[in-house]
Structure formats: C-alpha cells, structure tokens
Amino acid sequence: MELGPRVRALRQRAGMTQVGLATELDISASYLNLIEHERRPLPARLLIKVARIFDLELDAFGVDDSAQTATDLTEVLADSLFERHEIGEAEILEFAGRSPGLGQAMLTLYAGYRDARESLESLASRVSQTQDMPGVEPWRLPSEEVSDFLQRNVNYFEALEAAATALWTQAELNSHDLYGALSRFTSRALGIDVRVTRSTSANRTVRVYDPAQHVLRLSEVLPPHSMAFQIAHQIGLLTQGEVLDRLASDARLTTPDSRALARVALANYFAGAVMMPYDRFVEAAQELRYDVDMLGRRFRASFEQVCHRLTTLRRPGREGVPFHFIRVDIAGNISKRFSASGIAIARFAGACPRWNLVNCFLTPGQIRVQLSQMPDGREYFCIARTVSRGESGFGSPPAVHAVCLGCEAEYASSLVYSDGVDLANRDAAVPVGVTCRLCDRMDCEQRAFPPLKRTLQIDENVRAQSFYASLK
Questions:
Q1: What is the spatial distance between Cα 250 and Cα 68, in angstroms, rounded to a whole number?
Q2: In Å, how far are 185, 241, 242, 301 from 232, measured between CA atoms?
Q3: How far is CA 206 from the centre of its chain?
Q4: How far is the C-alpha of 115 from the C-alpha of 121, rounded, in Å?
Q5: How far apart are CA 438 and CA 73, in angstroms?
Q6: How far apart are CA 86 and CA 427, in angstroms?
Q7: How many H helices and E strands in the chain?
Q8: What is the rounded (10 degree) CA torsion for 280, 286, 290, 294?
C-alpha cells in the first residue's frame, strides 16, 4: 500500500506546501519529501496526525485501489489501440500509485470509448438489416459501476449487518422455518400478505410486490431458500430505504440506473445477511472449514448464496478468509466479480480457459478444485461448480452458470477442499492468466490472441501448440 503518494495527493488537494504540512507534522520538509516518494515509511504516529489534519477516518487509508487500478490499466493498454506505445509494467504501477484519480479517469475514458464502439457496431449491424430504424440508445454498463462500488467497500456494509441482526430478534426468526417466520413478520409488522402464485408461460416473474394491495407474490417455481431470500429482500427495500439511499448516493454511481442497481445489490446483501447472520455464519464457516454444501444445509441456502455470503465476512476483528468470487456463463462472460484475495479479474474480456471456473462446465454439479499460479507468481486455491436457476418445467431450460470461490494459497489449509492436495508442491499449480493479451505464457494450447509484449512474426513453416507460440 503506497501511503506516501496518498499523503501527497491530500496535501496538494488542500493547497498545502511540503513545508506547511511538515510544520503541522513536526518533521522536516526533507523527511516529508522522502515519505511522499516512498523512500521512507509513514509511521503510525504520523498517519494519525495526517488523518486528523485532513479530517479523515483512519479507515480511509485502509483500502488501496492502486493495485486494482494498475491491473485494469494494464488490461486497457493491451487493446490494439495502444500497440504502438511501449508502456512497461513498472510505469503502470507507478502511475496508478501516484495518480489514482487520473488512472480512474483514464479507465472511465476507455469505457466510454468501448461503449461508443459497441454502439457503432450495433448501429452498423442494424443498418445492414433494415432501413427503418429508430434511434440508438447510448450503451451503458451500470453493472460495472456497481461492481466497482462493492469492491471499494470490500463487499461489507455494517449498517445492513446490524439491521439484519436486529430483524432476527424483532421477527423471532429461526433457521428451520425462515420462510414461515419471515412471512408472519411481513403480515404482522408490515401488513403485507405473502402469496405463492402459479407460474405460467405468460408470467415468469419470481417476485412482485403490489404496494396498493399490500401483497407480495412469489412464484411457485422458487425453492424454499429462494422464497425466504425474496421475502428478506423485499423487507430490506421497505424497512431499510434510508440506508440503501445513503449507500447508493456514492458519487461514482453516475447514473440513475447505476444507483437503482446498487439498491438492488444492497437489498440482496441484506437478504443474505438475514439468511446467514454474521456471527453464527462466520463461526460455522470456521467450524466446517468453509464447506459450502454443509453451510448450505445448516442455513438452508443455495451453493451460490453461501459463496456470496463468504465474500462478505470482512468485519474488522471478526474476518473470515478473504475470498474472491466470479460467476460466468457458458460463453465465458463474467456477470459477477469481486476480489478480496488480490487476484486480478478481467474487466473487458472473458475468463482464462485454464481456470477450473471454465472447465467445470464439463462436469455439471461437481466441485472442481484447482491450485493455480498467475503470471505475477502469486498462487491461489479455488473451487468451482456449475449452478442453475430458472427451472420452470419442460420446455423451459434453466440458465446455467459457473461460480468460483477462491483465496490465496496461504489460506488453502483453512478449507476442507484442500485435504489431499499437496499444497507444498507448487510445481503442480496450473498456470493461469487474466486474459491472453496480458499473459506471456507461450506454451498454452488455449491461447486465442498474441500477448501484448510480443511482436507478431509468423513463420509459416512452424506450427507449435498454438498459432501464436512461434512469436519472437
């Protein structure tokens, strides 16, 4: 974590000179200069003074976005748009650490460029198909803004945790009949009648709340754990509106769609916290060594719901294993991502095909375990399994996704899935990349694109494991 550049940014934003801040800190200007340029560490006593001078909570120094910004910038610079510019990894890391705001601005600019390119491609496709065409709406990705919002908050919201804990007492909840207890609470305390409705080809919605009639309708296709989740979600919307609005007012949620989607994500967070109360859940997770299936049985939750909840165990002094979570569809599109483990996850491309996340589509419903090594040398231990949702009977096939839950290899022994895995044999780690363009491994039979740092020099007389393996 580069605290020095962050101190410099705070000083410059406040219009202070090095001499002025050094005087406030009771140190020499030359010593402050060394700190700001990462040539001397920032002692705890000075960190406290800096926080007081700039009226900041110490937590403001606890989340470092520079590593993720550097990863995202590296992916952006892998675009062929920048292929004439030779920009090294060290230069990117320095830029992200020293100018985080400018780095985020560059990512926003690139996202706008991508959106415009997508819109033009869509427009060209539609023009080729018809001459009678309405206007094209701008392409927006509020889901990306919400993913970044969750990442900035390390996927932990104490206000919602406290509200979920209070609901257990107020509603007299119990894990054995959570659906029934929540239904009775909505009727008694909120005046809402919960009804299970029939699913038809014309009506595929799973939850509909009618505020005029005070009726919450749930589809019969939902399993019990999903019914309980949907009731808890609606309770969150109705009772935690002020908290949801405050959290979703984040300045980096820039559109109404982003803020609306953030409210949905936060209500989902509340529902997960209701189903799996923090203290009981973290104790059970440690007792069962993070066995997802056993946790699901104990808390009457699905595999994906448990994986989601495991990523939220970030309460200071009461943390669980720092996990990352990824969900992809069979085409490799990443629909959900969060990283507390430090692993780099592609923002503008699909997942590496060497990940067990992709391979588990070959063995539906089975957990696949993998010890992997990223190009930067860091090693991770991951489990992955397919999950399905939306089963509505014959003729309505479910949507199938794969979910991955992983952590740094040093935490692997805390997981039951590591039993029988020789964690000390790092030669057994599967080489995995972020995307082909950012991966330098040339012995990969799965390579689909040439790496960023290699020139394209084709020898027609040589054919290696992949088309690009003969690059210089």
A1: 19
A2: 10, 13, 16, 13
A3: 25
A4: 10
A5: 11
A6: 32
A7: 17, 9
A8: -50
Place of tokens 């231990």: 381
In this structure, the strands spanning 368-373 and 207-210 are: unpaired
Handedness of CA 25, 28, 33, 38 (dihedral sign): negative
DSSP character for 384? E
Q: Are residues 261 and 286 in contact, defined by beta-carbon separation less than 8 angstroms?
A: no
Count CB neighbours of 469 within 10 A.
16
Residue 59, judged by CB atoms within 10 A of its CB (0-12, 13-18, 19+), counts as exposed
pLDDT in tens, the chain (472 residues): 467 777 887 888 788 888 999 999 989 888 888 888 777 877 878 888 888 888 876 655 655 566 677 778 887 877 767 766 777 777 777 777 777 778 888 888 887 777 776 665 554 444 433 344 343 333 447 888 899 899 989 999 999 999 999 999 999 998 889 999 999 999 999 999 999 998 776 567 889 999 999 999 999 989 999 999 999 999 999 999 999 999 999 988 988 999 999 999 999 999 999 999 999 999 999 999 999 999 999 999 999 999 999 999 999 999 999 999 999 998 888 889 899 888 888 776 677 888 888 889 999 999 999 999 988 888 999 999 999 876 556 666 778 999 999 999 999 999 999 999 998 887 889 999 887 777 777 777 777 777 766 666 666 776 666 666 554 4
Q: Are 69 and 103 in contact (CB under 8 A)?
A: yes
Identity at 246, one-letter amino acid code? R
- Phi first, then psi: what are they for 382, rounded to 5°? -135, 150
The Cα–Cα gap between 164 and 275 comes to 9
Considering only CA atoms, which of 379, 203, 182, 139 is closest in space to residue 274?
182
d(CA 49, CA 26): 10
Give pTM, 2 decimals: 0.72
**324 torsion bin: left (phi>0), alpha (psi -120 to 50), beta (else):** beta
Strand-pair partners of 167:
none
Neighbours of 375 (CB within 10 A): 15
170-207 burial: b if 16+ Cβ within 10 Å, else e:
ebebebeebbebbbebbeeeeebebeeeebeeeeeebb
Partnered with residue 408 across adjacent β-strands are 380
Q: Which residues contact 318 (CB under 8 A, 6 or more apart)?
A: 278, 279, 282
Residue 329 CA, chain-centre distance (Å), reads 16
Select from 340, 332, 338 the least CA-distant residue to 357.
332
d(C-alpha 292, C-alpha 302), whole Å: 9
Show the beta-strand stretches assigned E in 211-274. 215-219
